[in-house]
Amino acid sequence: MASTASEIIAFLLALSGWVLVSSTLPTDYWKVSTIDGTVITTATYWANLWKTCVTDSTGVSNCKDFPSMLALDGYIQACRGLMIAAVSLGFFASIFALFGMKCTKVGGSDKAKAKIACLAGITFILSGLCSMTGCSLYANKITTEFFDPLYVEQKYELGAALFIGWAGASLCIIGGIIFCFSISDNSQTPRMAYAYNGATSVLSSRTKYQSREGDFKNTTSSKQFDKNAYV
């Protein structure tokens, strides 16, 4: 019972983390920068893995998509690949988890389901590591440019998408670790097997009773005969 509850908690944590990681791909604010005037913010610059935009004080946004994938910076290409890999691994890990959980009717025996659950945990951990690496690589580029005194172009700060990605990666890793430990719980507490022989009829029960009674009479008579023979 405890292992089933831990698997359900692990699945909910990992699935929530995968949803958060998936939501970071279309999120706008991977990095953000503002130009402040004396009274109001005059412009806000922001970018993600697909485009760069600027929003003025009136709320009008002008965006520019990255022109070519081959002309992109290396860190953006790496972040794209890592985040797409994280989403794909999380999708397959969710399917493996549904087959490996004890509360489902598919997946085979308990031993086979434990192995599938462990595979789901490893896949969730890989998904979290890919997301963590992608967000950390992007954040490292932002902080390096921000604290570089020789960098004269527009400097950005960390956006909300990075924090969402880190949170989702952490949940995926935690859920995957719990799934991996569930295989030890399944090996320590095997499921009890009960044999069902079917319902016995009234006639068969009477026959068994009469046969037992006859055997008892035969044994008592044989004992009496043995005693009389020796007398």
From TrEMBL:
Entry-linked Pfam families: PMP22_Claudin
GO molecular function, one term: structural molecule activity
Protein name in the entry: Claudin
The entry's keywords: Cell junction, Cell membrane, Membrane, Signal, Tight junction, Transmembrane, Transmembrane helix
Function field: Claudins function as major constituents of the tight junction complexes that regulate the permeability of epithelia.
A Gene Ontology cellular-component term: cytoplasm
InterPro entries the UniProt entry points to: Claudin, Claudin10, Claudin_CS, PMP22/EMP/MP20/Claudin
Protein's UniProt keywords contain Signal: yes
Membrane protein topology class: Multi-pass membrane protein
